[in-house]
């Protein structure tokens, strides 16, 4: 009786597996490719904080999917509002911190460009004042060696001394202002470093640019720094949706680190060829049956 039950269950499993193959012609009766049917994708969420329209995001996805479509010579991905694969642009602390870093970097750079001419002007005026003081002291010393200056020269020297004091006071005020500006600049640099540290910590805890969640058939994109990088990230995650794993070539779409590379590499093509190669129905059945049996946790080691 146990063998009969096991046989019936095995037949059910086979029928379920066969129903998933979606064979379309007699030519495909005994062979099958995972790329025979295109993946239909939809867009669910485009967070408005990215300041990216839904139409633009769809265009970026189309460009990213086109990389794989062109490589295989047929549509591997098609847009379908009711498609199974969900693609989303999700705003969270990673993008927020990135925006803060970019804003602070711009402000630090502007302040640095503003401070440099002020420091140069201060140094120039300081050198001129020192030279004037040296000249005045030398002239006073010369008159003292001669027994003293006549009244008109004395009045001129006193006036020059007073003028130099006014210049020195202005220079000191400039120095104080520069010190405040420099302190503000240094504070901005410190704030920038802290924000960068926070961003790095956030990236260490969660995916960098995006992720393909296989069980949910869902792609989440977390960054929109620039168009080439976004398209690259989309192409990368779409590759995962096809079943392609990471490769070690830094120039590849499927390299695990973010880049702006949009040209498919030989490593990408090899992985795509492996995913899309035709397999026998019996090979697919065997793999499918194994998956179903594992999920059902059925033990056929019956006497």
What does this protein structure show overall?
With 303 residues, this protein is an alpha/beta fold. The protein has three domains: 1-33 and 278-303, no CATH class; 37-91 and 224-277, Collagenase (Catalytic Domain); 94-205. Helices cover 62% and strands 9% of the residues. The protein has seven helices and seven strands. The protein has helices at 2-19, 54-72, 93-145, 151-205, 227-242, 266-276, 281-296, and strands at 31-32, 39-46, 77-79, 85-89, 210-213, 218-221, 279-280. The strands form two sheets. A five-stranded mixed sheet has the order 3-2-4-6-5, with helices on one face. Strands 1-7 form a two-stranded antiparallel ribbon. Strand 2 (39-46), helix 2 and strand 3 (77-79) form a beta-alpha-beta unit. Helix 2 crosses helix 5 (227-242) and helix 3 runs antiparallel to helix 4. The chain starts with a helix and ends in a 7-residue tail after the last helix. Residues 12-27, 202-207 and 297-303 have low confidence and may be disordered.
Question: In summary, what is this structure?
Answer:
It is built from 7 helices and 7 strands; from the N terminus they run αββαββααββααβα. It is α/β, with parallel strands linked by helices.
Secondary structure blueprint with pairings:
Elements: H1 2-19, E1 31-32, E2 39-46, H2 54-72, E3 77-79, E4 85-89, H3 93-145, H4 151-205, E5 210-213, E6 218-221, H5 227-242, H6 266-276, E7 279-280, H7 281-296
Parallel strand pairs: 2-3, 2-4, 4-6
Antiparallel strand pairs: 1-7, 5-6
Helix pairs in contact: 1-7, 2-5, 3-4
């Amino acid at each position: 009786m146990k063998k009969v039950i096991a046989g019936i269950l095995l037949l059910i499993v086979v029928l379920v597996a066969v129903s998933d193959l979606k064979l379309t012609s007699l030519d495909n009766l005994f062979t099958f490719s995972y790329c025979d049917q295109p993946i239909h994708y939809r867009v669910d969420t485009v967070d408005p904080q990215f300041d990216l329209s839904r139409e633009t995001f769809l265009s970026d996805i189309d460009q990213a999917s086109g990389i794989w479509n062109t490589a295989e010579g047929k549509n591997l991905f098609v847009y379908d509002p009711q498609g199974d694969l969900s693609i989303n642009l999700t705003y969270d602390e990673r993008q927020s911190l990135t925006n803060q870093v970019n804003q602070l970097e711009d402000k630090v750079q502007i302040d640095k460009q503003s401070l440099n001419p002020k420091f140069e002007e201060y140094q120039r005026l300081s050198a001129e004042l020192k030279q004037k003081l040296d000249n005045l002291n030398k002239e006073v010393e010369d008159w003292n060696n001669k027994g003293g200056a006549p009244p008109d020269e004395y009045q001129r020297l006193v006036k020059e001394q007073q003028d130099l004091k006014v210049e020195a006071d202005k220079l000191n005020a400039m120095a104080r202002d520069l010190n405040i500006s420099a302190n503000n600049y240094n504070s901005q640099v410190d704030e920038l470093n802290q924000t960068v540290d926070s961003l790095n910590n956030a990236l260490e805890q969660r995916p960098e640019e995006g992720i393909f969640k296989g069980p949910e058939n869902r792609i989440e994109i977390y960054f929109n720094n620039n168009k080439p990088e976004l398209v690259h990230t989309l192409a990368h995650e779409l590759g995962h949706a096809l079943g392609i794993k990471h490769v070690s070539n830094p120039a590849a779409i499927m390299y695990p680190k973010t880049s702006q590379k949009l040209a498919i590499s030989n490593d990408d093509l090899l992985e795509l060829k492996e995913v899309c190669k035709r397999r026998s129905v019996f090979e697919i059945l065997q793999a499918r049956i194994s998956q179903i049996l594992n999920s059902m946790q059925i033990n056929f080691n019956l006497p």
